[in-house]
Every structure is written in structure tokens, then in C-alpha cells.
Design brief:
Shape: globular
Strand order of the largest sheet: 4-5-6
Structural class: alpha+beta
CATH topology of one domain: Arc Repressor Mutant, subunit A
Helix content: 40-55%
CATH superfamily of one domain: Winged helix-like DNA-binding domain superfamily/Winged helix DNA-binding domain
Length: 184
């Protein structure tokens, strides 16, 4: 059963990579560049740095730096200095980057495939995959990078929602994004 489940997940991941690769060819992007772009479109202000992209993708800093340079040269991302700490550079997805992702993520064939599931099947699949992911993260010790609203540091106060770690206010958009400081 373990081998069969692994093979099914691996095959789905491989098909997704193939479709993503095909979509990226329109802009001359490699899958790693598309993964970095997608991550940057889903992460918050604590996670939109070169170091966070490197940690998230599990790649070398050199590989990630080269990928980010390509994304920047194609005007899909831009670098913005932090207003409070000039040592920090944030990586922001441009309108062209968002437009590309809107057309390609998820790939249309993936959307077509899951459209065939009933609402209950889709919810059950999502719940089971979340459980597998959580168990795998615990087993590997790589539990960072979760959605802010589910983090233990996400705190409701009389003034609104605040990150308990940074003590900074969080917007309704912030809490929907991925954060590298996430703790369940």
C-alpha cells in the first residue's frame, strides 16, 4: 500500500511538472523558475526574500539566485528594499508575473481532472492530502511555511489580528498567505 500510494502521488507530481514545464515554455521559463514565481505569489512579507525562496524550494542559494535573476530580467518580479530595514530586499511579483500565473497555475488539465470529482470527493481528497502533508512534515522536521491564519502566532486582539512573533498588525490578505515563521 505504501509503495502504491507513493507511486500515485509521484505520478501526479510528475504530470503536474510536465504540464507546468509546457506552460512555462511560452516565456522561456524552467520549472524551478516557475516554482519560485508561484511561491512568491503566495507568500507574505516575512517570506518574500531570496533566503526564504531558497529554504522553501530546498535548493542552493546559487540556483535560486540565478532563477530570480531570470524572473527579474523577464519583468516577472522586482526587488524592493524594506522600508524599515534597508538590509532586507523583498521580491514582489509584478502584474506580468501575476498574469502569467493566472493563466498557468494550476495547469488547465489539472483543473479539468479535478472537475470530475464530486464536491465530497474533492473535500475528502483535500483533507487526506493535508493530513499526509502534515504527517510528512512532522516526520522530516520541515514544518515551516504554512498559511498564516493557522499559525500559533496569529493572534486576535481588540485592535485586530497581530503576528505574536513580530507584534505587527496583519491584514485580512496577510493571513491567507504562506509564512516561513509558521508554527502549528
Amino acid at each position: 500500500m505504501n509503495d502504491e500510494l507513493f507511486n500515485l502521488i509521484e505520478r501526479l507530481a510528475n504530470l503536474l511538472r510536465q504540464e507546468t514545464r509546457l506552460e512555462g515554455q511560452s516565456l522561456g521559463l524552467q520549472p524551478v523558475q516557475q516554482e519560485a514565481l508561484y511561491f512568491l505569489s503566495t507568500c507574505n512579507r516575512y517570506s518574500d526574500t531570496t533566503l526564504a525562496v531558497t529554504e522553501y524550494l530546498g535548493l542552493t542559494k546559487g540556483t535560486v539566485s540565478q532563477s530570480l535573476k531570470i524572473l527579474e530580467s523577464k519583468s516577472l518580479i522586482l526587488r524592493v528594499k524594506d522600508k524599515k530595514d534597508k538590509r532586507i530586499t523583498h521580491l514582489k511579483v509584478t502584474k506580468a508575473g501575476h498574469d502569467f500565473l493566472m493563466k498557468t497555475c494550476p495547469p488547465q488539465k489539472f483543473t479539468d481532472a479535478i472537475t470530475g470529482l464530486s464536491v465530497d470527493e474533492a473535500l475528502d481528497t483535500k483533507m487526506l492530502l493535508k493530513k499526509v502533508l502534515n504527517n510528512y512534515q512532522l516526520a522530516t522536521g520541515r514544518t515551516a511555511f504554512g498559511v498564516c491564519k493557522h499559525c500559533k502566532f496569529n493572534q486576535k486582539t481588540s485592535d485586530g489580528i497581530v503576528c505574536g512573533l513580530t507584534k505587527e498588525p496583519l491584514s485580512s490578505n496577510d493571513i491567507l498567505l504562506i509564512c516561513r515563521e509558521y508554527v502549528s
